Amino acid sequence: MRKTALIILDGWGAGNQSDENAIHQAKTPFTDSLSSRYPLAHLHASGHAVGLPDGQMGNSEVGHMHLGAGKVVWQDLPRISQAIEKKELSSIPSWIDLMDFCLRHKKPLHLMGLLSDGGVHAHIDHVLGLVDAAVVAGLDDIRLHVFTDGRDTDPQGGVDYIGKLLHHIEQHAQVRLVSVIGRYYAMDRDQRWERTKKAYDLLLHGQADHQIAIENMEEHIKSLYAKGITDEFLEATLCDDKALCIAEGDAVLCWNFRTDRCRQITQTLCYGIADEGLVLESIDTNYVTMTRYDVSFDTIPVLFAKENIENTLGEAIASAGLTQLRMAETEKYPHVTYFFNGGRETPFDGEERCVIPSPKVATYDLQPEMSAYDLTAEAKRRIKEDKPDFLCLNFANPDMVGHTGDFAAVIKAVQTVDVCAQDVIETLLEEDYQIFLTADHGNADFMVNEDGSPNTAHTTNLVPVWSIARSNPLSIHDGSLCDIATWVKACLEIS
Q1: Residues 234, 232: Cα–Cα separation, whole Å
Q2: Which of the following is catalytic: 60, 116, 358, 371?
Q3: Which of 86, 196, 312, 448 makes a 20 to 30 Å CA pair with 472?
Q4: Cβ neighbour number for residue 354 with a 10 Å cutoff
Q5: Domains in the chain: how many in total?
Q6: Which residues sit opposite 356 in a β-bridge?
Q7: Residue 55, domain extent
């Protein structure tokens, strides 16, 4: 048995050696030197290889899930799309109950979520399908609350998605767009409750930076673009009467399918929060989510229940009686724990977890190193003292800074990770670990669009994987993220 480490450089794709590739443009002497010393292969991290539609970019949730599962797990995006296309919503019990509630009690249905075709957290086709299905069910009052993207899509693409939505609902007099706000506020996941509060106040009380007539909405968004305010940071905008906001007794459906970024707004609306003097009270609604956002949200019905993923890498390690350590900073902590374990919240026997707080900055281009140095120092200490049989460690920088679109900041992020990865790997080699250095998806490998605008989204590029050891590194081959689990098991001599 050989102790093994998996180090994930989040968002480090194998793109072309071009001016648009921040990884290529950065000074990365350590990772540059690896290919001449250790086996290198390339892995598919998008599309069918990770249970997504062909050509769909991967993401951190899906990537870590497949790194841990060791097999293709079909994702919520194609599963939900198929159900909507085949008009199967009417056979889902929680949808039937939601429609029945609105009809019996003459209550409005509020649909809220991310409006884009990025396919990472949500998809515009899903909300259009939900609108149509609710109309067919006989609802006469449907209210939309939109979160704009600009992170997994073009930073100024939101105006087109709003336009598509407005065009679609023109045929339905009972459907109205009530509010719009950027995902920076509505979809925070780092317990920055002051951001969540801005979305909460808009959704419940109509407190907005702007109140714009619906016919002027697209021009309003363009005017914000002209001021440098892109989709992710779109200011709270009320498009209709405050009386149409979410009220006690109403029905609410959040259409995001990815679980992590609608936890806070859901927790606030359904359970309330109290944090450092900030108190946001819950509201009594019939609240439904597309998927199960958190195991503790057991009172909230879901449309699409989670499919159980069995025999994950973490489970196999635990069953063999071995120890494992998962490490990341806050932004990627759920990925090396919950998602890597196939959607399991509770640690396995012998599984230790360590989270390093992410810096409290507005956007990570302001601190591209994030908490990588602190994470590195703690990783080195734990490797030397605890000597876990398996280590899974994530460096968040290339992805999180990549999403800002700031090319210079991304270069700093990449260079930081190159230094930190070297430091951790040299410590692991001293302890005779077999190391796999890879990524979950691309991002920093393509930062500039053809028109010169920043690209803030993930890429569909392959990701590199190096097999690193002091002697006799494991032989590897081109494949997909799923292969990593097989290689780790081979090193640990488990099945």
Answers
A1: 6
A2: 60
A3: 312
A4: 18
A5: 2
A6: 329
A7: 4-74+307-492
